[in-house]
């Protein structure tokens, strides 16, 4: 019986083919489309909350500007340099939040039993959950991040070589992918401990806050943690330090500044493994 | 009637006391945020040692008090307002209106019970963690702690009164998620959770200090740090009580308008 | 593909064990308990049959349905639905089955009913002609015409249930699972739902497995009933057999024109009186007609109704008999 159970758990090859990715994207778009139409049922409310979201998330940056009304440099970084960190962190996090932020409410779906209905559809579950409650108003954070980034770029002392120019968009996307992986792993975690959903906020929102500041102001233990355990340092710190021509406080070899993409891929792969384990656990325990 | 509301308070406390894993997770998150903000304040006070009249130890105390009060003041959700909005949207609020208890009083009692639990369950441990890692400027005098407790209690009422207004907005707006989120962020900013209001420059600082959100962190923290002591501390409490009264009255007024709407439209 | 001779649903010695953590009295640590929600269950359902699946709350009904849909993986035994192992090939199976959970809607709350159906069309990749045909059939039989452009949040419970059933049938499933499809519905909606299910079963040959607390659902729809309790199959056969096995009774509630002493009629047993109203119990397998005729011959009647035995009662009596 153990043997047959093991065979039962094996994933059929069809689900792993590249077709599965296309299927996921298709399902994601279908569900997102439904949520956007649902939002538009309350159009006035949407416009107001989207603008409000933009203005409100901007207060984060206003706080930093207020700090700079008293000082010229924080941890040795000028305001435009901090704005570069802030802009890259906010844009990456905002993108991930827009694409997969709903995963942090997976526990609710598990508790009220509606997760079951997602398992009944002929579409990849992860795509359905990521698209669940898709909220276009989250574009506010992305917009705000891009604006701050745009303000900082002409003001920072970066030698815009081909490498640095290419590094910026790659960093934004790799950073978004790392945060997406955190959302997926955090969502999967809720299959086991739905009540502990808050813990992932310390990595997502906490991480986004952390990355707004220069790494040098934090303790080395914290820096090691966000480099080697949850590799948030690759979201923007390491590539931005390279662009700004500053040493990194952990003294890592120079090539790690370009490791964002492989690190992001690794994170996504690990998150995928955790997700599968989470779904499997749900299907054997039923919540 | 007083006994009834006391029972609602106790029920509110108990209800949140059952979420033990969630409480532990919240404490963890508060502690992580406390660490991140502490380091940024150390860098800031390193440049300006007496910014806003705080020493570095006082600034760090401020950070951890802020993390300790965050849940009690429901600054990032967890309060009653989302539930109330859901009840308004689903029409279940009509049932609440026919209860013998007053709508505002009932929710206030339940929210105070919640806040009392959050203060103990989510407040004590982060402050203790902060005190372990950093040198904090916590007072020794029991009188100061007593004043602080009063300031926190009044701050909770102000926090409730604001969120009650937000909750009522669901009578007019069908999708409350955006409004709630905006309230959080405005509240975080003007309570001084992101940066102490005394470090806000010029007129912005004065305005922020005069707004009701300051009752949710800045005022209690200043009482605890003895930046406001003696008669000034009593003045601080009076300031909070004044806002509480004004906002509760506004809530009552709006509740009346909303109730008439329910009666007319049948929910 | 299933050959016509093979059963549509085959459950063989299936079990589902859950680890439940419970706080033991007087101990700080929570103790682990193993709960057998489904315990050595075996049955088959041939193609085109309509089966009632009943049992008390917590008996293992929902767990069984979840294993038959692939939501849950069995702890042991074998499940085959339409020749597919549900836990292994959930996505492939999902195209061949339809599921309706009475308590949870799959419709989109803020959007018109039609939009939910469009999503089903795209997700299941239903060809246009087939979609149009199926939708038209559902709309006609379930009276959905005036509801298609109404946001789901404005529908009544009965309307929403009809909408949900249609959504589960647009892709022509060979098997339909219904978990409490009539719960909370008014009499008219219940009748509509039952009529529709009968038509679908007769015309399309859809195999139907339905759980319910309403014995009338079973009586009007199912030729076969399975009773489950504590995860085991307690009874499998016709409804008459169930009544006989459980020796259950229906109740005739009669409103006489005036207050009477307890009436005596052959084939019925007086239960109680309340003013002019009296309650008479009679064997569930018997027809109420001769009884009513006998009563009407003796006393003027104002009103009468027949109460079905509750499923819990039937099962309780079954245990008493066994």
From TrEMBL, chain A:
<feature type="transmembrane region" description="Helical">
    <location>
        <begin position="259"/>
        <end position="279"/>
    </location>
</feature>
<protein>
    <submittedName>
        <fullName>ABC-2 type transport system permease protein</fullName>
    </submittedName>
</protein>
<feature type="transmembrane region" description="Helical">
    <location>
        <begin position="44"/>
        <end position="68"/>
    </location>
</feature>
<keyword id="KW-0812">Transmembrane</keyword>
<keyword id="KW-1133">Transmembrane helix</keyword>
<feature type="transmembrane region" description="Helical">
    <location>
        <begin position="158"/>
        <end position="184"/>
    </location>
</feature>
<dbReference type="Pfam" id="PF06182">
    <property type="entry name" value="ABC2_membrane_6"/>
</dbReference>
<dbReference type="InterPro" id="IPR010390">
    <property type="entry name" value="ABC-2_transporter-like"/>
</dbReference>
<keyword id="KW-0472">Membrane</keyword>
UniProtKB/TrEMBL annotation, chain B:
<feature type="transmembrane region" description="Helical">
    <location>
        <begin position="119"/>
        <end position="138"/>
    </location>
</feature>
<feature type="transmembrane region" description="Helical">
    <location>
        <begin position="21"/>
        <end position="42"/>
    </location>
</feature>
<feature type="transmembrane region" description="Helical">
    <location>
        <begin position="233"/>
        <end position="251"/>
    </location>
</feature>
<dbReference type="InterPro" id="IPR010390">
    <property type="entry name" value="ABC-2_transporter-like"/>
</dbReference>
<dbReference type="Pfam" id="PF06182">
    <property type="entry name" value="ABC2_membrane_6"/>
</dbReference>
<feature type="transmembrane region" description="Helical">
    <location>
        <begin position="62"/>
        <end position="80"/>
    </location>
</feature>
<keyword id="KW-0472">Membrane</keyword>
<keyword id="KW-0812">Transmembrane</keyword>
<feature type="transmembrane region" description="Helical">
    <location>
        <begin position="173"/>
        <end position="195"/>
    </location>
</feature>
<keyword id="KW-1133">Transmembrane helix</keyword>
<feature type="transmembrane region" description="Helical">
    <location>
        <begin position="144"/>
        <end position="166"/>
    </location>
</feature>
<protein>
    <submittedName>
        <fullName>ABC-2 type transport system permease protein</fullName>
    </submittedName>
</protein>
UniProtKB/TrEMBL annotation, chain C:
<dbReference type="GO" id="GO:0046677">
    <property type="term" value="P:response to antibiotic"/>
</dbReference>
<protein>
    <submittedName>
        <fullName>ABC-2 type transport system ATP-binding protein</fullName>
    </submittedName>
</protein>
<keyword id="KW-0046">Antibiotic resistance</keyword>
<keyword id="KW-0813">Transport</keyword>
<dbReference type="InterPro" id="IPR027417">
    <property type="entry name" value="P-loop_NTPase"/>
</dbReference>
<dbReference type="InterPro" id="IPR003439">
    <property type="entry name" value="ABC_transporter-like_ATP-bd"/>
</dbReference>
<keyword id="KW-0547">Nucleotide-binding</keyword>
<dbReference type="InterPro" id="IPR050763">
    <property type="entry name" value="ABC_transporter_ATP-binding"/>
</dbReference>
<dbReference type="GO" id="GO:0005886">
    <property type="term" value="C:plasma membrane"/>
</dbReference>
<dbReference type="InterPro" id="IPR003593">
    <property type="entry name" value="AAA+_ATPase"/>
</dbReference>
<dbReference type="Pfam" id="PF00005">
    <property type="entry name" value="ABC_tran"/>
</dbReference>
<feature type="domain" description="ABC transporter">
    <location>
        <begin position="9"/>
        <end position="255"/>
    </location>
</feature>
<keyword id="KW-0067">ATP-binding</keyword>
<dbReference type="GO" id="GO:0016887">
    <property type="term" value="F:ATP hydrolysis activity"/>
</dbReference>
<dbReference type="GO" id="GO:0005524">
    <property type="term" value="F:ATP binding"/>
</dbReference>
